[in-house]
């Protein structure tokens, strides 16, 4: 009886330990996050579904590197993304729908060359909870549509902008920017709870499911390798 209790206690401690490891609120870039919506790195697998993601840590390896992350915005009313205090280079942040249509952009704040997509901005509060794509680049590597139009106004640098009228979805970037290590601080973002959370983003459901599935397998394999 005693040994069974000890075994149960050990199992509980083990389960708690695993949960604690899985509950990491910070997502570390795995390899190099892709520079397209389809190649985006989904922020899942390093926390239980629904648990908060408070930051993404990664690096832009050169002026043409663009890192795009698939994130689950669970609370659009408080969603924010910021590199203030999280980078030593001139960052830019851009938010997109799963179909590549632009949502918001910021280059600099009044205080710094780092970037802020602010909580409470009407561009964010109107969003439905679900999957979105957050891109980080170094100034002045800007997102372009298929006709090489700038998707977002790029000056004055401190503005928070929605997409320019008439532009198409993301097709590429202008290239040639600053680079370095970054931390993107997040609010209103949780680890993806899976396809059921993808509300209001029907065009991206299949892609998101596929990406999330691949990401989960990758995370599983990474954990397997680490524990082997
Ligand atoms: Ca990178
Ligand atoms: Ca900037």
Task: Write structural notes for this entry.
The protein has a single domain (24-227), classed as Jelly Rolls, CATH 2.60.120.380. It has helices at 2-22, 122-125, 205-227, and strands at 26-28, 41-42, 55-60, 67-73, 80-82, 91-96, 102-106, 116-117, 130-138, 143-144, 160-161, 172-173, 180-187, 189-190. A hairpin with a 5-residue loop joins strand 6 and strand 7 (102-106). By secondary structure, it is an alpha+beta fold. The structure holds calcium ion (2 copies). One calcium ion binds at residues 90-92, 107-108, 113, 115, 139.
In short:
The protein is an alpha+beta fold. It has helices at about 1-20, 120-125, 205-225; strands spanning about 25-30, 40, 55-60, 65-75, 80, 90-95, 100-105, 115, 130-140, 145, 160, 170-175, 180-185, 190.
Q: What structural keywords apply?
A:
228 residues; 5-stranded mixed β-sheet; 7-stranded mixed β-sheet; 26% strand; alpha+beta; 3 helices; disordered C terminus; binds calcium ion; Jelly Rolls; globular
Q: Separation of termini?
A: 33 Å
Give the overall pLDDT as a whole number: 82
Q: Shape, please?
A: globular
Give helix % range.
10-25%
> Main beta sheet, described?
7 strands, mixed
Structural class: alpha+beta
**What's the tally of helices?**
3
- Strand residue content: 25-35%
Order of helices and strands: HEEEEEEEEHEEEEEEH
Query: Oligomeric form of this entry?
Result: single chain
Q: What is the gyration radius calculated from CA atoms? A: 19 Å
Query: Ligands in the structure?
Result: calcium ion
User: Total domains, how many?
Assistant: 1
- The poorly predicted ranges are 8-22, 195-228
Number of strands: 14
């Amino acid at each position: 009886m005693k040994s069974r209790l000890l075994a149960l206690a050990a199992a509980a401690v083990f389960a708690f330990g695993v949960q604690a490891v899985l509950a990491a609120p910070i997502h570390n870039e795995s390899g190099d996050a892709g520079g397209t919506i389809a190649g985006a790195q989904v922020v899942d697998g390093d926390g239980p579904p629904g648990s908060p993601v408070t930051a993404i840590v990664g690096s832009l390896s050169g002026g043409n590197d663009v890192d795009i992350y698939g994130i689950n915005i669970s609370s659009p009313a408080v969603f924010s993304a910021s590199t203030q205090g999280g980078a030593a280079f001139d960052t830019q942040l851009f938010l997109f729908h799963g179909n590549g249509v632009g949502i918001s952009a910021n280059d600099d704040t009044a205080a710094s060359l780092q970037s802020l997509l602010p909580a409470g901005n009407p561009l964010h509060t109107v969003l439905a909870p679900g999957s979105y794509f957050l891109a980080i680049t170094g100034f002045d590597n800007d997102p372009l549509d298929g006709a090489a139009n700038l998707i977002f106004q790029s000056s004055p640098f401190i503005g928070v902008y929605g997409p320019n009228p008439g532009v198409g979805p993301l097709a590429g970037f202008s290239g040639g920017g600053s680079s370095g290590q970054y931390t993107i601080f997040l609010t209103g973002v949780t680890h993806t709870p899976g396809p059921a959370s993808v509300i209001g983003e029907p065009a991206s459901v299949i892609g998101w499911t596929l990406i999330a599935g691949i990401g989960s397998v990758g995370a599983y394999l990474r954990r397997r390798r680490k524990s082997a």
